[in-house]
Design brief:
Number of helices: 5
Structural class: mainly alpha
Number of strands: 0
Distance between the termini: 77 Å
Radius of gyration: 27 Å
Order of helices and strands: HHHHH
Strand content: under 5%
Helix content: 40-55%
Shape: elongated
Length: 124
């Protein structure tokens, strides 16, 4: 009797767990079986310029002094590698930007610069 109970339990468990496959996904209402992710392109005018204006002034904007001015698309584009390098440094490292700050820019902000470079540094 005990052997039959264990065998039946084993068969029932196999049937129940055969439908627990994590790779199967239920299609929601209105969704298609093939989904394509939309590529979001980062632009200077809409994304990078806003960050530059808020995080890099008053040292780099307005131009003046011994700081490289970042008040135009051309100057930011010409210096993008240096900008990315310096905003990725730790606050204790020499050359860290933003200067006189104790914390790095958040990863999402740094990724805007990286994505803009990867997208081809589009102006508008």
């Amino acid at each position: 009797m005990k052997k039959i109970f264990v065998f039946t339990l084993l068969i029932a468990s196999t049937i129940v767990f055969s439908y627990c496959n994590p790779s199967k996904k239920t299609a929601g209402a209105g969704s298609s079986t093939t989904t394509a992710e939309a590529k979001v392109t980062t632009h200077y005018a809409g994304n990078v310029e806003t960050i530059i204006m808020s995080k890099c002034s008053p040292c780099h904007i307005p131009p003046g002094g011994n700081k490289t001015p970042f008040n135009s698309y051309a100057s930011v584009k010409a210096n993008i590698d240096e900008i990315i390098k310096r905003i990725e440094l730790n606050p204790t490292d020499r050359g860290f930007m933003p200067f006189k700050k104790t914390e790095k820019l958040d990863e999402a902000t740094i990724n805007v610069f990286k994505q803009w470079k990867a997208d081809g540094m589009i102006e508008k």
